[in-house]
Fold:
Amino acid sequence: MKDVIIIGGGAAGIFCALSIMENTKESVNVTILERLEKIGKKILATGNGKCNFTNKNLAPKKYNNPKFVTPTLSKYGYKEIVKYLESIGLLSKEISEGRMYPYTESATTVLEVMRMHLQRLGVNIKTNYEVNKVVERNGRYLVYNKNQRNYYLECDYLVFACGGASAPVLGSNGSGYSLLKPFKVKVTDIYPGLVGIKSEIMILKVLNGLRFKCNVSVVEKKTKKSVWTQYGEVQFKGDGISGIVVMEASTFIARHQGNYIINLDLMPEASLDDTIRMLNKRKELFESSEVSSLLTGMLPKMLGSVVVKKASIDMNSYVKNLTNANINKIAGLIKAFPLEIKGDYGFERSQVTVGGVSLSEVDSESLEIKKMNNAYICGEMLDVDGECGGYNIQWAFASGYLVGKKVVESIKNNA
Ligand SMILES: Cc1cc2nc3c(=O)[nH]c(=O)nc-3n(C[C@H](O)[C@H](O)[C@H](O)COP(=O)(O)OP(=O)(O)OC[C@H]3O[C@@H](n4cnc5c(N)ncnc54)[C@H](O)[C@@H]3O)c2cc1C
Structure:
């Protein structure tokens, strides 16, 4: 009887356990060790409590390293994951833009179905077991519990499924990386990804609560070159901006560390010249109104006044007094409203970790760790992150399933 320990009871660890039990007829003893009081806590918080677990538009290019994820995703793509979940009792549906959710639109159902199946298959689950040390001895691993001095469990096969460092209250606190240190397995620098961006409070305070669709660009400060642009809804906070498009921008910024600002194109449908023409028409229409009204009916009121203020125009002067230079400046700000980046909301509020276990440390076909024997890594713990839209859980499920299969293959080959 071979013992397998999976460190981490998140999406990846759970799928790995299911995969091992389903793919072997040999007797295998599979145990999930989870540092929190229950497994799958993060799953419950995903997709605003609905769990967007995969996407019909799944493609390697949705991830930071398309080449690395290809072998896994070509075997366990979105269809395979949907089908597998259905086979264990979970119905699903597309809600929008290919995003797949449980039919119930409740993340609790996803976890419940998986827990029931873990139980049916006889997977052992030990909670409140935070692994703080792994030691290799005589070809087996001793896996220590931080909460019980000198207590350890032993196994023949070890799977690291500890997640990254994002949303530590939901379990993944970055502790997994340090377990690999004694084995000289490299971990890259890590940063919060899919997270809101902090910016200038003076500008944003009055916009708190506003949601507005526009183009968001990441612009290199030095060259003024736009290096990333996407259209979407920006959610204005008192001290920063958020929303899917901003979260995607944050991942780009985290991955390409540099000196950037954010530009918002508040009217992507119009060119700069169109915008100038529009403003000149409004100058005629609103000539006797105060400047603060110039953008009424064009932009949300507060956003309009923030733009005019940023152009350093006296808010109490009249529209008819606006010079061509004033009009050009306002148009320029509508097309590229600059926001300084003052950081992000940190790992606490990030959905994914950018960076992780270096991909050169594992074989992309099996996710086996090159420097260790019979040890594997799956899920977000690796330096793999995907876009918003179900791609991160898809990776966790698919990589967990693949590792489970590879563990079974190895057990069979060594029998
Ligand atoms: C608020 C939020 C919303 C999200 N929404 C979506 C979404 O809708 N769609 C999507 O695709 N992705 C979403 N994500 C991202 C997605 O949830 C993760 O990428 C995915 O769950 C990662 O799975 P994982 O199993 O690799 O890691 P995790 O889910 O982080 O699981 C790791 C587990 O390991 C445990 N652990 C860690 N260290 C140890 C240790 N030393 N000893 C024992 N146990 C340990 C942790 O407690 C945790 O349970 C969201 C993330 C957040 C935070």
